[in-house]
Design brief:
Largest sheet: 4 strands, parallel
Number of helices: 6
Structural class: alpha/beta
Distance between the termini: 36 Å
Helix content: 25-40%
Number of strands: 8
Strand content: 15-25%
CATH architecture of the domain at 32-158: 3-Layer(aba) Sandwich
Radius of gyration: 17 Å
Order of helices and strands: EEHEHEHEHEHHEE
């Protein structure tokens, strides 16, 4: 994970060649700045993941960002009420591109056991989600696997995909407008 050998390269005596896109993707994948949006028991499991026993900082995530303007990974862990939904959407909209979303736990993924009028039945109803981590609550190992899946997405994503018509259409389905790479 994160080794230069993972890229398509031309190796020679004392040099290595690859494309700029792949080098940037490797750097991005190993320097993800997460923004935790933890509301309940899944948040406690996420805290355990950050602790010394599991040490999420081994994957280039030692800096938690508690401001959306400096984060590129939104980790939503726990129950999201319908009143909290607009706040979550605003946090997502304030994040700079490129950005990714990790949905942690059954409540964030699908509303969990709370099939009530006040609980949002999955955060994918208001923001696009890249990776889902199921469980009630998920174990720290599952959260680490979800983070590693985000790393793989980051490595394989083209720098220009975020400005494609398909991506603009996806954000349009969530009523998020994007123009020339800047959200309105």
């Amino acid at each position: 994970m994160g080794k230069i050998e993972d890229l398509e390269t031309i190796n020679g005596e004392g040099y290595q060649l690859t494309t700029l896109d792949k080098a940037i993707a490797l750097a991005r994948a190993n320097s993800v700045w997460p923004l935790p949006f933890a509301t309940s028991c899944c948040g406690i499991e996420f805290m355990a993941t950050m602790g010394s026993a599991y040490d999420l900082s081994r994957f280039g995530m030692e800096r938690m960002s508690f401001t959306p303007r400096q984060a590129d990974l939104l980790i939503v862990a726990g129950t999201i009420s319908k009143k909290l939904g607009p706040v979550l959407k605003r946090v997502y909209e304030q994040m700079a591109e490129p950005k990714w979303v990790l949905s942690v736990g059954a409540c964030a993924c699908s509303g969990g056991i709370f099939d009530t009028y006040s609980v949002l039945q999955g955060i994918d109803r208001i923001i696009p989600v890249d990776v889902y981590v199921p469980g009630c609550p998920p174990r720290p190992e599952q959260i680490i696997e979800g983070v590693m899946n985000i790393h793989e997405l980051v490595k394989k994503e083209s720098n220009r995909r975020r400005y494609s018509d398909e991506y603009k259409h996806l954000l349009g389905t969530y009523q998020i407008e994007i123009d020339n790479g800047q959200e309105k």
